[in-house]
Design goal:
2 domains
Length: about 325
């Protein structure tokens, strides 16, 4: 795995070095673009959303001289993710009934009458931030980063798998969107605020305050336009899908340790008060369904694609013959 990735990195640096040596003006122009974009994101404290990631990656591929190929390949993927992100904000307007008890009952029945969020916070939250709070929330914040990064890696290492991955991640997102419409579900912090469950602390607000954001409620409305989109938890689902495809790329034996990523996310979202155990179990089930659905779609395409190609060739040949006869 490391050998393949390092080979890609060496290839990229070799191309950049060739441009620097043979076309210094072009090299410094491209470098200025990527520095400007990076500085803009740092100054604005930009949230890692599909559009910002696309712009950042585009700047990198401009430097590498592959902007056109990147746009052709990634524009549909990012546009679909942006469409999901936009639709997610209207889901709660389509169904105003909010579910509170199914997730609470599931968790309490599963854990002997105790809420896992409350138990974890009683163990780990002591009124001030610790290193693991930032660790859990960092994983939470890179929600869109890891799928996009994996898409780039698949594109470079195994292009034939790229569209299957796109179908899986986009399919998973829109399956969740439909569920948000049918079953709006409140997260633990909202249930606590409305006194459905015992008081829990929303640790994410402390983390954002520590990062210099005073008005957390305003920021949250921007990064999460639908506060009742808790079931399934896509923050828990994306990491599992990431691991499944990483195993496809490099094998389970070499990358089994990557399971630490989804497991940490599952623990983190419950501890932070963002999701119930019910939510990430649903997310895991949706992930497996999307994974196998994408494989099935690609198999169907592989079966029928030769037929479509042959039909296209026949129609093209017939059109050429008619055109020749008219002349």
């Amino acid at each position: 795995m490391i050998t393949k990735i390092s080979a890609i990195v060496r290839s990229w640096f070799a191309r950049v070095n060739i441009v620097r040596r043979d076309h210094p003006v072009l090299f410094w122009f491209r470098t200025a673009i990527i520095v400007a974009v990076t500085t803009f994101f740092l100054v604005k404290h930009s949230i890692w959303t599909p559009d910002t990631l696309f712009i950042g990656l585009l700047a990198i591929f401009v430097v590498l001289g592959q902007a056109r190929v990147f746009i052709i390949r990634f524009a549909p993927f990012v546009l679909l993710l942006l469409a999901y992100d936009s639709f997610r904000g209207i889901a709660d307007d389509l169904n105003t009934y909010v579910n509170f008890w199914p997730m609470i009952s599931f968790d309490m029945n599963l854990f002997g009458g105790h809420l896992p969020t409350a138990v974890l916070q009683s163990w780990w939250w002591h009124g001030s931030l610790s290193w693991y709070d930032f660790y859990f929330y960092f994983l939470y914040a890179i929600h869109f980063v890891m799928p996009v990064a994996l898409a780039v890696l698949i594109w470079k290492l195994k292009p034939k798998m790229y569209w299957e991955f796109v179908i899986a991640i986009v399919g998973l997102s829109f399956m969740a969107f439909i569920t948000y419409i049918i079953f709006p579900a409140a997260p633990p912090w909202m249930a606590s605020d409305l006194h459905y469950i015992e008081p829990i602390h929303r640790i994410s607000s402390d983390i954002w305050h520590a990062m210099g954001f005073e008005d957390f409620s305003k920021l949250y409305s921007e990064i999460s336009p639908n506060p009742v989109a808790a079931v399934p938890s896509l923050h828990s689902a994306y990491p599992l899908l990431f691991v499944l495809y990483f195993w496809r790329l490099f094998g389970v034996r070499k990358t089994w340790w990557l399971l630490a990523y989804p497991i940490s996310m599952w623990i983190g979202v419950v501890y932070l008060g963002e999701h119930y155990v019910f939510d990430f179990v649903a997310g895991a089930l949706y992930t497996v369904a999307a994974y196998y659905l994408a494989k099935w779609v690609m198999r169907r395409v592989a079966i029928h694609a030769p037929i479509y190609r042959e039909q296209y060739k026949k129609s093209y040949t017939a059109a050429r013959r008619k055109f020749t006869k008219r002349r």
